[in-house]
C-alpha cells in the first residue's frame, strides 16, 4: 500500500470565527468535513493520506471555544483550550487537580501547547493496523488484524472487545469521567449535554468511531461540576517511554473520605477498552469500606473481572489490577500481598 | 454506482468487503412497490378466480370441519424461524441506517437459532412430512401456463385447484431456501471472525478475497430477505389468505376454504382420524416456507 507521507491531500480549508459558522459548515458538508482542533491527531491522518476529507474546518479562530470559565456550579472549559492552559489554570489546579495531573502527562510540552482538551478526548485510536490504512473493521472492512494469533496487540484491549480490539488513548478522558464532567455538544438539532462516560462508545455500538459525534456535530465545551472539587484525586499513567508516549493504561479516581472510610468514589481507566471505562462495580464495592490495602486488592481484582487477554497483552490484567489498587489504597500501600 | 464496497488488502489486492448499504433501501422500496402494485391489482383489476371443476363430489362428506394442515412441531418451527429471522434482519440493518445498539451478540445468537431450526426442519421434512408437497410438480407448471394465458386474455381452460400449497407458495419457499441457506452457510463461517461460544476465532480461515465474497453473498441474501419477508408478511395479512395464516397458528383450516381452493385429489386429507384440535394435529406436508 503506497503511503505518501508529509504531503497532505488537497482540501478546502474553512476557518470560521464563530461556533455558529463552524456548525453551519459542518452541517453543510456532513461526512465530507473534517474537524481540525489542535491538529495533533488530524495531521497524522492527513499527511499519511489515510484520510482524504474534501473539507477541513479549522476551529482555531473561534475564541468562544477557548478558555476556562467559572460557572455557578464548577467550571466550563472550552473545547479548544490547550492542554497547557488547562494544566496551568489556577482553578483547575486548585479544585480539579485530577484533570491538571492527567493533562500534564499527555505527550510532550510542545504537543500540550498545541493540543486541545476537546481534541484529546476526541482523538482516534492508535492501533497501527488501523492507522496504517489497513481495511480493518474500524476502517469499514471486515477483519481485525490485531486480534489474530500473529497480530501485534501488546497495546490493545483486554475488556469489552467486540471484533475490533483497539483502545482509546486519551489521558484526560478518565479524569473527566472521574470528575463527573459533562460534554456540551452542538448538533444540528440544538445543544446537547452528555455525561463524560456517555460521550465515548465501544465497537459494539459503532465500530468506526470512539465517540458519539456524528457528522455535523461539534464538541464545544466540557463542564466540570463542583461535586468532586477538592476531593482526593489519584491519577497514574503507565507508558513505555515516560517522556512522551500514549498510555498503556491509566487510572483516574476522585474519592471523598469520612475518617478512614470511603464515603463515595468515582474511578475510571483508559487503555483497557475502546472506550474509557468507568468502574461502577468498583465504586459500589468500596463505598463504606476502609481505605486500606485489603479494599484496594478487592477492588483491583474486581476491576479485571471479565478481562480477556490477547496474544501479547496479558500483562495489562495485573497492571490494571494494580493501578486500581493504588488508586484506592494509595501508592505506599500498593504492594501485593497475594 | 457501486453495488459493492471494495478495499485494498495489506497485500495490495483489491477485494470486496461488503455490499453497498444503499441496497437496503433498494430492497425496502422493491418490497413496498410489490405490495402496492399487488394490492392495487387485486383491488381494481383482478378477476374472480376460476378453477376447473373437479370430480370430487363424493369427497366432501368425508372432509372434517377442520382440515389439519400444519402439525404443532411444524408451526413451532415456523414461528421460531420467524422470530429469529426478524431478529437477524433488525440487528443486521438497523445499525446500518443509524440506530446504534449492541447488535453483534444478538445477531449471532439469532443466527445460531435459525441455523439449528433449519437443520431440524430439513430432517423433520425429509423423514416425517410429505417432502415433495412443497416442490412444484408438473400439474403446477401446466396450471401456471394456463393462468398466465388467461391473465393475458388468451384462450386456456381454467387451472385445477391447488394441492396443499399453491405454486406461488412453493416458489417463495424455493427462493427462501436459496437466500436462507446463503446467509446461514456464510454466517456460520463468519462466526469464526467474532468471539462466540462455538469456535476459536480464526480470521485467516480463507483468503481476503474469499472472505470478501462471503460477506457480499451474506449481504445480498440478507437484503433479499428484507423484500421477501415484507412480501410474506403482506400475504399473511391479506384477507383472502387469512385462512392460511390462521392454519399456521391453530394448525387447521376451514373445510369450506379447503374445498374452495384445494383439490382433494392432490391434497388428500386423512379423514379416519378423530376431529383434530389445535393441540393435536395430524397434518402432512411442509410448512409454508416461513
Helix content of chain A: 25-40%
So how many helices of chain A? 13
- Strand order across the largest sheet of chain A: 4-5-8-6-7
Query: What is the strand content of chain B?
Result: 5-15%
CATH architecture of the domain at 64-122 and 168-227 in chain A: 2-Layer Sandwich
How widely separated are the two ends of chain A? Answer: 49 Å
> SSE order of chain A, as H and E?
EHEHEEEHHHHHHHEEHEEEEEHHH
Name given to the CATH architecture of chain B = Up-down Bundle
Dominant shape of chain B: globular
The poorly predicted ranges of chain A are none
Describe the protein's architecture and organization.
The complex is a heterodimer of chains A (338) and B (290). Chain A is of the alpha+beta class and 338 residues long. Helix content of chain A is 28%, strand content 20%. Chain A has 13 helices and 12 strands. Chain A has a 5-stranded antiparallel β-sheet. Chain B is mostly helical and 290 residues long. Chain B has one domain: Transmembrane di-heme cytochromes, Chain C (Fumarate Reductase Cytochrome B subunit, Up-down Bundle), CATH 1.20.950.20. Helix content of chain B is 53%, strand content 6%. Chain B has 8 helices and 4 strands. In chain B, the strands form 2 sheets. In chain B, strands 1-2 form a two-stranded antiparallel sheet. In chain B, strands 3-4 form a two-stranded antiparallel sheet. In chain B, a hairpin with a 5-residue loop joins strand 1 and strand 2. Chain B starts with a strand and ends in a 29-residue tail after the last helix. The A-B interface holds A 1, 134-135, 139-145, 147-148, 161-163, 201, 204-206, 308 and B 5, 7-10, 12, 15, 17-18, 95, 100-105, 193-195, 201, 203-204, 208, 211-212, 215.
Amino acid at each position: 500500500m503506497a503511503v505518501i507521507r508529509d504531503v497532505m491531500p488537497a482540501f478546502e480549508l474553512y476557518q470560521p470565527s464563530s461556533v455558529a459558522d463552524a456548525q453551519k459548515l459542518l452541517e453543510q458538508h456532513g461526512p465530507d468535513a473534517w474537524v481540525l482542533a489542535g491538529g495533533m491527531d488530524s495531521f497524522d491522518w492527513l499527511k499519511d493520506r489515510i484520510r482524504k476529507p474534501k473539507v477541513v474546518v479549522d476551529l482555531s479562530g473561534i475564541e468562544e471555544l477557548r478558555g476556562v470559565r467559572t460557572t455557578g456550579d464548577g467550571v466550563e472549559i472550552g473545547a479548544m483550550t490547550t492542554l497547557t492552559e488547562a494544566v496551568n489554570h489556577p482553578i483547575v489546579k486548585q479544585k480539579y487537580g485530577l484533570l491538571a495531573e492527567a493533562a500534564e502527562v499527555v505527550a510532550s510540552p510542545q504537543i500540550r501547547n498545541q493540543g486541545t482538551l476537546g481534541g484529546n478526548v476526541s482523538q482516534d485510536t492508535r492501533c497501527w493496523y488501523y492507522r496504517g490504512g489497513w481495511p480493518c473493521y474500524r476502517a469499514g472492512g471486515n477483519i481485525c488484524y490485531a486480534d489474530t494469533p500473529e497480530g501485534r496487540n501488546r497495546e490493545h484491549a483486554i475488556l469489552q472487545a467486540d471484533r475490533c480490539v483497539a483502545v482509546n488513548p486519551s489521558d484526560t478522558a478518565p479524569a473527566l469521567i472521574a470528575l463527573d464532567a459533562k460534554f456540551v455538544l452542538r448538533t444540528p438539532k440544538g445543544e446537547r449535554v452528555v455525561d463524560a462516560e456517555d460521550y465515548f462508545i465501544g465497537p459494539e455500538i459503532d465500530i468506526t468511531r470512539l465517540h458519539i459525534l456524528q457528522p455535523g456535530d461539534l464538541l464545544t465545551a466540557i463542564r466540570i461540576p463542583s461535586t468532586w472539587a477538592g476531593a482526593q484525586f489519584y491519577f497514574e499513567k503507565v507508558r513505555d517511554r515516560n517522556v512522551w508516549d500514549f498510555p498503556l493504561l491509566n487510572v483516574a479516581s476522585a474519592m471523598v473520605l469520612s475518617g478512614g472510610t470511603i464515603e463515595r468514589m468515582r474511578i475510571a481507566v483508559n487503555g483497557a477498552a475502546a472506550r474509557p471505562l468507568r468502574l461502577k462495580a468498583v465504586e459500589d464495592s468500596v463505598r463504606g469500606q476502609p481505605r486500606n490495602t485489603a479494599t484496594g486488592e478487592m477492588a483491583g481484582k474486581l476491576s479485571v473481572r471479565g478481562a480477556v487477554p490477547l496474544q501479547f497483552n496479558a500483562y495489562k490484567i495485573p497492571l490494571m489490577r494494580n493501578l486500581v489498587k493504588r488508586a484506592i489504597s494509595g501508592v505506599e500501600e500498593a504492594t501485593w500481598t497475594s | 454506482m457501486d453495488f459493492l464496497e471494495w478495499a485494498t488488502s495489506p497485500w495490495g489486492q483489491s477485494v470486496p468487503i461488503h455490499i453497498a448499504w444503499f441496497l437496503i433501501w433498494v430492497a425496502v422500496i422493491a418490497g413496498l412497490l410489490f405490495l402496492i402494485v399487488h394490492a392495487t391489482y387485486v383491488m381494481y383489476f383482478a378477476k374472480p378466480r376460476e378453477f376447473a371443476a373437479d370430480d370430487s363430489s363424493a369427497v366432501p362428506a368425508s372432509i372434517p370441519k377442520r382440515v389439519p394442515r400444519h402439525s404443532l412441531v411444524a408451526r413451532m418451527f415456523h414461528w421460531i424461524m420467524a422470530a429469529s429471522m426478524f431478529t437477524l434482519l433488525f440487528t443486521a440493518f438497523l445499525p446500518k441506517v443509524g440506530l446504534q445498539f449492541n447488535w453483534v451478540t444478538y445477531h449471532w445468537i439469532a443466527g445460531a437459532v435459525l441455523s439449528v431450526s433449519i437443520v431440524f426442519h430439513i430432517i423433520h421434512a425429509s423423514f416425517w412430512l410429505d417432502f415433495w408437497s412443497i416442490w412444484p410438480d408438473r400439474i403446477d407448471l401446466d396450471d401456471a401456463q394456463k393462468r398466465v394465458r388467461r391473465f393475458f386474455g388468451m384462450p386456456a381452460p381454467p387451472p385445477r385447484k391447488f394441492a396443499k400449497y399453491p405454486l406461488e407458495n412453493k416458489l417463495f419457499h424455493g427462493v427462501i431456501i436459496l437466500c436462507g441457506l446463503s446467509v446461514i452457510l456464510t454466517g456460520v463461517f463468519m462466526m469464526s471472525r467474532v468471539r462466540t461460544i462455538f469456535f476459536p476465532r480464526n480470521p485467516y480461515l480463507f483468503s481476503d478475497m474469499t472472505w470478501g465474497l462471503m460477506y457480499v453473498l451474506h449481504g445480498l441474501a440478507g437484503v433479499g430477505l428484507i423484500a421477501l419477508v415484507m412480501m410474506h408478511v403482506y400475504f399473511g395479512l391479506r384477507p383472502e389468505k387469512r385462512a392460511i395464516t390462521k392454519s399456521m397458528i391453530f394448525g387447521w383450516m376451514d373445510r369450506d376454504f379447503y374445498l374452495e381452493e384445494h383439490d382433494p385429489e392432490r391434497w388428500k386429507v386423512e379423514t379416519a382420524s378423530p376431529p383434530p384440535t389445535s393441540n393435536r394435529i395430524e397434518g402432512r406436508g411442509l410448512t409454508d416456507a416461513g
